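Per reviewer request, we include the raw input and output of the structure prediction for the construct analysed in the revised manuscript.
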Amino acid sequence: MAETVKGPASYFPSIEKKYGRPVAEWQELIRSSPLTRHMELVAWLKSEHGMGHGHANALVAHTLAEARGK
């Protein structure tokens, strides 16, 4: 039986469907951004890429957690 995805990653299928890019591509954009603070990155995704707050927050949270090794 497949394990249910929880946390920020649970948003990933809807992010890919709504914005037409794979999550890996969004994560690379986040990593390559000169911004480093969580809410700065969220605001950037919202303003520059038209992303909703929940989707932007999930991507940033997951990407920054990976960078911290969590």
